[in-house]
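Fold this sequence, please.
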Amino acid sequence: MLFKEIIGQSAVAHQLVQSVQQNRLSHALILLAPEGSGGLPLGLAFTQYLVCENKQPEGACGHCPGCIKASQYIHPDIHFSYPVIPRKAGDKPVSTDYVSEWREFVTTNPYGNTYDWLQFIGAENKQGNITATECQDIIRKLNLKSFESGYKILLMWMPEYLGNEGNRLLKLIEEPPVNTLFIFVAENQEQILATILSRTHLIKVNPIPKEDMVKSLTDRNVPAARAQQIATIAAGNYREAVYLLQNSDDDYHELLRNWLNYIFTGNRGALQDWIEGISSAKTGRENQKQFLRYFINLLEHAVRLQFIDRSQLAFSAEEMDFSSKLLKLAGMEQIEQIVELLDNAYYHIERNANAKMLFHALSIKLQYIFKKKPLPQT
């Protein structure tokens, strides 16, 4: 993978390239990236850059033998480690047991999370792990001489899955063989072994900027308005954006506009039909949750409008106009109440609440809030 193929994250890519060009490369680093922000693609692009035989100012050349092998995930000096499961009871699995599946997964779904990966290898309800046997295998491989590159590289995805057995790697991390590099790609800093965390250079990766997300979606022929909606809900998580793209045809903006219109006009018949539609099995719980998240994001955006110049906000003109109208209908106190209601509704939908009753109650409470009346006691 090349840096230019990654969605956004140009600042981190530049930092990684500069660390090599200026001879400031740490032998052990952690790319700490929220889900769907591109931590794994950054790690993959960086390993390809390291073994590239014709490095360019912006990254790997993409054409040399080192690049070709790295792009196919078959370079002999790049080793991968990731959570795995036993294929049968009593097995002591290592990452290389799943190397074919891994190559296919990172090619087709580099923004996926561990759930996607474990389902891809048929884990079902089994817990993935990076085992003590895996740590021993890592030590063995990294103590070998490099084959083709000047570096020997371990890219470990999700070191959070290392238990205390990860302490077996400490001596190797502290005193690695010459030109041996550890690249850890993680999502949750608190779940990484403190002993490993203290021995590595931490690079924090931010969620993908909205404008970069929108561009990536429109490049996939997603209509601009729809791309804006998806990017708003996904909040920098490309995995979430792809999921929304594949699993929802709803226009959340129109859905929200109709809902509030029926509430304000007191159109009970239309409101009841709206509740029936949003609560149907066809809509599904995931879509209901994403709709609520979209409403929350627009409310947060309405608050930002009071303090930030419009030109600095990556929202469509339609969303900007709608958020401005929300501000006229609800003050800060009302917005806070609505967000709390929507958060609670999201929580209960996740726990299989009756959607029809939930959206009916929400509609009544929103009427009270917009009229600045005390909420009815439940």
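The CA atoms of residues 301 and 323 lie 7 Å apart. The domain at 3-206 is CATH 3.40.50.300 (Rossmann fold).
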